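Protocol step 4 of 5: obtain the predicted structure for the target chain.
Materials: sequence only (see below). No template structures provided, no constraints applied. The aim of this step is simply to have a reference model before the mutagenesis design in step 5. Sequence pasted as it appears in the construct record:
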Amino acid sequence: MESALKPFRILAYIVGVMLLVLVTCIVLRYGFGIEEPSKVVSPIHGFLYMLYLVAAMNLGMKARWTWPYILGVMLAGTVPLLSFVFERKVTRRVEAELVTATA
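Step 4 output (structure tokens):
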């Protein structure tokens, strides 16, 4: 489980930051008519989000979470700032499970 936690945490932060950048690009595109940044950032965010989904699924399967919880963690990458909140929740949950498993 520990081996799956680190990639999840890294990708949760990256996807969270990229989502904030994407929101900024969308505001530039639709609010000010500046389209170029969103054309670059959108596919990068999409690719990184797919990696986040794989990392969340990997961690969820190793931790034996329920499907609704796994899906909730996966969807957290679609709402600005929520991936940061879920990263902390998930990290605390996994660390507590690891302590329980070793005790």
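Step 4 remarks: The first helix runs from residue 2 to 32. Residues 36 and 65 are 40 Å apart (CA to CA).
Proceed to step 5.
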